[in-house]
Amino acid sequence: MPHTLLLAEPRGFCAGVVRAIDVLDSVLDREPPPVYAFHEIVHNRHVVDGFRARGAIFVDDVTEVPEGSRIVFSAHGVSPAVVDEAKRRRLRIIDATCPLVTRVHLETRKAVNDGYDVLLVGHRGHDETAGTLGQAPDRMRIVEDADEVARIDPIERPVFVVTQTTLSMDDTASAIDGIREIYPDAEVRNDICYATTNRQLAVRTIAERVDLLLVVGSANSSNSVRLREVAEAAGVTAYRIDGIDEIDPAWYEGVDIVGLTAGASVPDELLDPIIEDLKARGVTSIEPIVVAEETVEFRLPDELEV
Ligand code: SF4
Q1: Quick one: three-class SS letters along the chain?
Q2: Relative to the CA of 17, which ligand 1 atom is closest?
Q3: Residue with CA closest to ligand 1 atom 1
């Protein structure tokens, strides 16, 4: 049974998630339900269920939203086609897209205007990549890894590379190497965000000491899934869980030191019962492992600042 717990820092909420949650929270405080949100506001089951209980309705298609309703766009961003459809339906839009995702949208559109075709390194079907691909659907392609780069039709125009913000640092570096082998002159922007980077660095550091790592985060949370993979790549047994209910106590057998972290959309309160349970099982030493101080904050959209 474990005697020591290492807590990754930073872990949990990033600035983009805090902003998106504050946006929806503030809209629900000001307006009668229902308030619609395009896509889950952040990829965390507990957060989304909490908003549902307050009258938020999450949709994956804006045509499901009654004309004239309030709609909040999630932290993951949307394509211009979604914005256009929302305007056609006279929806009252508040955009909670993380500013770091908006930056990828802007650099993508600028690159296309400057004559590039764009390769997006990311996971197909994720809300964020859907929004980014929608910035210039005729001039973009998505690749998940280096092998896929070699398989796509050759690109005739100059190549510009952007990435999803929540990818594994190592896998992305290898995808970019693969792109550079075929397109040596490619202009590359690695858009993995500060929060993803710091959480992965903390896991790598912790992985040197722990026998087991627990990652709190939902299955559809890209950055949470990546944290488990980073630990596994470092040779540590790791499980991703939504909360304490999913822990199998048998995981602790033969474990001296356990590590705990959480994805960028996870409230810290979900970790408290796990820590208390570990103390009850005999953990006597709890050590924070700090790899970075985060001071990033994003202001709310203008409509909500007053
Ligand atoms: Fe923004 Fe990064 Fe947080 Fe995504 S993980 S919301 S890109 S800060």
Answers
A1: CCCEEEEEECCCCCHHHHHHHHHHHHHHHHCCCCEEEECCCCCCHHHHHHHHHCCEEEECCHHHCCCCCEEEECCCCCCHHHHHHHHHCCCEEEECCCHHHHHHHHHHHHHHHCCCEEEEECCCCCHHHHHHHCCCHHHEEEECCHHHHHHCCCCCCCEEEEECCCCCHHHHHHHHHHHHHHCCCCEECCCCCHHHHHHHHHHHHHHCCCCEEEEECCCCCHHHHHHHHHHHHCCCEEEEECCHHHCCHHHHCCCCEEEEEECCCCCHHHCHHHHHHHHHCCCCEEEEEECCCCCCCCCCCHHHHC
A2: 6
A3: 16
Residue nearest to atom 6 of ligand 1 (CA): 16
- Catalytic site residue 85? no
What residue ranges line ligand 1, CB within 6 angstroms? 14-17, 75, 98, 100-101, 165-166, 193, 195-196, 223, 264
pLDDT digits (tens, 9 = 90+) for 214-270: 999 999 999 999 999 999 999 999 999 999 999 999 999 999 999 999 999 999 999
